[in-house]
Amino acid sequence: MPYRAPLDEYRLLLDHVVGFDRVAATDRFAEATPDVTAAILSEAGRMCEDVLAPLQRAGDLHPAKLENGIVRTSPGFAEGYKAIAEGGWVSISAPPEHGGMGLPMTLTTAVNEMMSAACLSLQLNPLMTQGQIEALDHHASDALKAIYLPKLVSGEWSGTMNLTESQAGSDVGALRTRAEPIGDGAYAITGQKIYISWGDNDFTANVCHLVLARLPDGKPGTKGISLFLVPKFIPDADGEPGERNALSVVSLEHKMGLHGSPTAVMQYDGATGWLVGEEHDGMRAMFTMMNNARLGVGGEGIGAAEGAYQHALAHARERVQGRSPVEGGTGTIIDHADVRRMLLEMKAEIFAARAIALACAVAIDMQTATDDAAWAARAALLTPIAKAFGTATGMSVAETGIQVHGGMGYIEETGAAQFYRDVRVTAIYEGANGIQAMDLVGRKMMDGGDAALALLDELEARGRDARGALADLAEPVLAASSALREGVEWLAGQTEMNARFAGAAPFLRAFARVLGGHYHLAAAMACGEGSAQAALARVYIMRMLPEHAALLAAARQGAADLYALDVEDMAR
Amino acid sequence: MPYRAPLDEYRLLLDHVVGFDRVAATDRFAEATPDVTAAILSEAGRMCEDVLAPLQRAGDLHPAKLENGIVRTSPGFAEGYKAIAEGGWVSISAPPEHGGMGLPMTLTTAVNEMMSAACLSLQLNPLMTQGQIEALDHHASDALKAIYLPKLVSGEWSGTMNLTESQAGSDVGALRTRAEPIGDGAYAITGQKIYISWGDNDFTANVCHLVLARLPDGKPGTKGISLFLVPKFIPDADGEPGERNALSVVSLEHKMGLHGSPTAVMQYDGATGWLVGEEHDGMRAMFTMMNNARLGVGGEGIGAAEGAYQHALAHARERVQGRSPVEGGTGTIIDHADVRRMLLEMKAEIFAARAIALACAVAIDMQTATDDAAWAARAALLTPIAKAFGTATGMSVAETGIQVHGGMGYIEETGAAQFYRDVRVTAIYEGANGIQAMDLVGRKMMDGGDAALALLDELEARGRDARGALADLAEPVLAASSALREGVEWLAGQTEMNARFAGAAPFLRAFARVLGGHYHLAAAMACGEGSAQAALARVYIMRMLPEHAALLAAARQGAADLYALDVEDMAR
After folding, report:
1. Ranges for the Acyl-CoA dehydrogenase/oxidase C-terminal domain (chains A, B) (predicted)?
2. Which ipTM score applies to this complex?
């Protein structure tokens, strides 16, 4: 089943929906001209279509395995990775002084999404490296940067994130891994980390682990955590991989999907590491990496959704069942209203999630280019929404994709099931979606809702411009936006934090629903009444946007009802 | 992970929510006294807890396999099946004259659901047999009944349904399997059938296939289809398995889940079969079986949801992460509002789906007992809702169950993932959920919505009684019910059938949402303000019921918007 890169949709989104022109107008990103942007996307798209998509099934059928302490990756993954690295697709946005292209995160976001659609399990490898590059660039010493960044940027080496321990998942502060100074600015790292994506591989010359650990004088909780760079092979005097470090892969997890991506239990036995950032300030550095990765994981959900959609559409265009209920139909099941509804809702949902992710990336780029606190606040606001809604879209679209296939969807050979199994983890890792929702209503609303309201101000102003040409679409979007605005104000007014948390998940989804409405409306305006894009917007606005009201009602319930049953009642 | 039969909830539902007292008050089901009912449910529950639940993982880890034409079932399944058969759990509702208990379908529905929760893949076997018993009882000749029913009822033999062919799925009428008369009332059956659940096994002495095929003079389409009973071993003069019939298992499918249930491609090479019902009237007999199976499959979804819920609840009660946000909490993640929200929504959704399934079963029993067309219409109305909503609940609850587990949910050893993979097929087989929705808005609304409105009349009258004691719960339910009523009237008024189909899926879900509200309200009334049940009803009514408005908006869109994009636009 081939993958086709959705280049036209990216073009539309960048040019007319998410305001990429503002990014390209900055000095920092002056090189991101329309020509460069188009060339990057089409070249990356071709690589995804030709090189990565053929690997998708192989990763599922032949999982990475651990043999005598060595991780053997799935057939073809080494070549696929080589294409990613040599094409420069690890490092579109990495610093040029270390070999990166220095292009906007918006382009990385689009490219990552295409790679995810083509081969989710392999794409996770460079995604982790990208986060590591950003963390090192912001927080590491010049000496560390000089050794590691060129190798990571070129893709010769890859990077991982080591946060979780068996007793420390969402509660990172509970970690027990220790770091002891051993002189020369080095530390001995001891402990066990779990769920380490791409903890090892057999195609990069080195694997560099960013490990959270506690120094002897580190306080309990997150404030006593430091971040260390711990390479598999310690670089020698020439910066080439030297002595083997005291770390090992203990085992690989047997997961429901994403089989091509080895998920490792990592053991550190006094492994040599170097401090990144300040002592006891590891969470700050790790958040740099996590925010990057959170947007990336949202993109994974969107990519998987796109893959599942294309797969289901191809099936619906071929499968003949029953008489066509419409005149002049194709004669396949795509003529049936319910099949068409499923496909159009899949497509409309992907558009919404993609627009949100790219809008988040634009905010990150504007923050980078302008250092303006308002852009930083917008990026921070949109990151959890992009992550949770992107991955929720991945799950729901993959589920519908199976449904479009009927019985064939449940048979593994068809491939529809793999999207469903693979994408499921994206709602969990890099902060489970519930954690994203709590971040949104907690930390990201500490400003009293200012960033959220500023975004709505901007979108509503644009929406009002659509009242003339597309009144029937503009009015419901503006009404939904007003309802969301009230929701933001209500939420920001809750001083009892648990009242916010009790509505966090539906609030996040309501926010995404309304943003999707605005972005669909903008696209419809750009393409004009009567366009296919306006027709897609209509499906979204009339059939899917109404959900926002139910979500906001749930978001505003407060916490009391959730504690009215005690735990024994719940078990009865 | 142990399973606990939810006996208290069945009791509450039967006594106060779905009107089982009316069934027990009929002559036909006079034996279904409260004592008998309680004994049946608790004995079946114990068997599910003790015998079936331990088999669940084994079925996943050791799929049924085909070896030299013989299906080898998963470890322990033979013993598990023996417990089901010897306990009489295949045939609670089967005719007493053939060895069944003759008890209401309502009890079978509850018992099937418990068996599904404990071991979904094994439970599918007796579910198919139950449908076959009912089809033979209604449509077969006395001679066939005398030979087959006692063996099926006792569980010595099992039954299957053979509808689908590779070109004939939802469009059964496209089938090509042929039947040729060979004298003595027998027929030679030739063709290939796919997706045959439990097409063979190594623990029943015979496997009896109900096969749809076309006689030489059968017209094209569904009107030319006849139904045949085709046993694996042809019964000898004593009614014992004799000569091997000309049929074979070609292969077993490699499915995403339900590995313990062998899904066969069946080949019939002039196999000997006997007509069931009239020539060319096979669809009518098959629908007897399918309606039975549809309710049963809805119950499979509910059972899987219950299993996933219990699994997630147990995890949430044990897993310690972070500080408790509430005073006097347990110290585990169940103290967190978002975790509690997930669990309570799971529980509330299961209650709603279970109530709908049992209400459907009550209608079937009342139809059986009274032969009243109004009850028949209600059973027909509720069957597609019970099937589609029960299985959708299975999917959504299993998805949330993984989420409650965090990273552990994605690791197969935890077991949460199995519920998610296993239950996915229930939304597809026995008529994909989209087909159920089309049945609801098409065939089941041919009465102009009378059956639907009669049900709402009854429920609203009861809901008005709650206005005094539970006004805050009663009012939203009654308002939602009015909105559904308008939806029914709008829909029944659409003469263009595709306008109905375009909103079929959201309409079905809206119907279920509102029914769930009524049933929760009734349970809250029975248990009283301040009860845990009223608290659960509040979660459902305040947080989940509001979805009905969005669904009804989508249901009333008509079909035009779905055809405004052409297929090429959808691929762009």
Report:
1. 281-440
2. 0.98
Say whether A565 and B532 touch across the interface (CB within 8 A): yes
**What's the gap in Å between the CA of A340 and the closest CA on chain B?**
6
Lowest mean pLDDT among A81-95, B326-340, B496-510: B326-340
- Residue A112 and residue A183 in one domain: no
CA distance B290 to B135: 9
Q: Which residues of A touch B264 (CB under 8 A)?
A: none
Residue numbers of B annotated as active site: 430
Vertex B383: Cα angle to A322 and B228 (nearest 5): 60
Question: Which pLDDT score, from 0 to 100, does residue B89 have?
Answer: 98
Option in B195, B321, B505 nearest A338 (CB)? B505
Tell me the DSSP string of B34-60.
Answer: HHHHHHHHHHHHHHIIIIIGGGHHHHH
The answer to whether position A506 is within a domain reads yes
Residues of A in contact with B472 (CB under 8 A): none
Q: Is residue B494 assigned to a domain? A: yes
A478 and A545 co-located in one domain: yes
The pLDDT score that the predictor gives to residue A517 is 98
Give whole-number Cα distances, B178 to A320, B172, B246, B267, B303, in Å: 21, 14, 14, 12, 37
Predicted pLDDT of residue B166: 94
A468 Cβ neighbours under 8 A, 6+ residues apart:
none
- Residue B432 to residue B387: CA distance in whole angstroms: 9
Comparing alpha-carbon positions, the chain A residue that sits nearest to B555 is A543
With an 8 Å Cβ cutoff, are B434 and A321 in contact? no
Shortest distance between the Cα of A148 and any Cα of chain B, in A, equals 30
The residue out of A281, A308, A333 marking a domain boundary is: A281
Name the residue of chain B whose CA is nearest to A314's CA.
Answer: B571
Query: In B, which residues are within 8 Å of A322 by CB distance?
Result: 170-171, 173-174
What digits encode the pLDDT tens for the residues A386-409?
999 999 999 999 999 999 999 999
- Per residue in B301-343, pLDDT tens? 999 999 999 999 999 999 998 888 888 888 999 999 999 999 9
CB contact under 8 A, B402 and A421: no
Nearest-5° Cα angle at B551, B545 to B553: 125
Measured between beta carbons, which residues in chain B are less than 8 angstroms from residue A413? 254
Q: Quote the number of domains for chain B.
A: 3
- For residues B39 and B24, membership in a common domain is answered with yes
Whether the CB-CB separation of A124 and A77 falls below 8 Å is answered with no
User: Which residue's structure tokens are 């979660």?
Assistant: B539
Q: Which CATH number does the domain housing residue B171 bear?
A: 2.40.110.20
Partner-chain residue, chosen from B325, B337, B403, that has the shortest CB–CB distance to A432 = B403
Same domain membership, residue B547 and residue B472: yes
Q: The domain spanning residue B461 has which CATH number?
A: 1.20.140.10
- The verdict on a CB contact (< 8 Å) between A563 and B340 is yes
Cβ of B399 and A403 within 8 Å? no
DSSP letter at B14? I
Residue at which a domain ends, from B230, B258, B282: B282
Residue B1 has pLDDT above 80, yes or no: no
The verdict on a CB contact (< 8 Å) between B194 and A420 is no
CB contact under 8 A, A407 and B497: no
What CA–CA distance (Å, rounded) separates B133 from B140? 10
Q: Is residue B567 part of a domain?
A: no
For residue A448, the enclosing domain spans: 434-563
pLDDT in the model for residue A149: 98
Checking if the pLDDT of A206 tops 80, the result is yes
Same domain, A142 and A227: no
Out of A190-204, A271-285, B323-337, B480-494, which region has the weakest mean confidence (pLDDT)? B323-337
On whether residue A454 sits in a domain, the answer given is yes
Q: Measure in Å the smallest separation between the Cα of A81 and chain B Cα atoms.
A: 25
- Closest Cα of chain B to A373: distance in Å? 30
- Running DSSP on this structure, what letter comes out for residue B409? G
**pLDDT of res. A82:** 98
pLDDT at residue A286 greater than cutoff 90: no
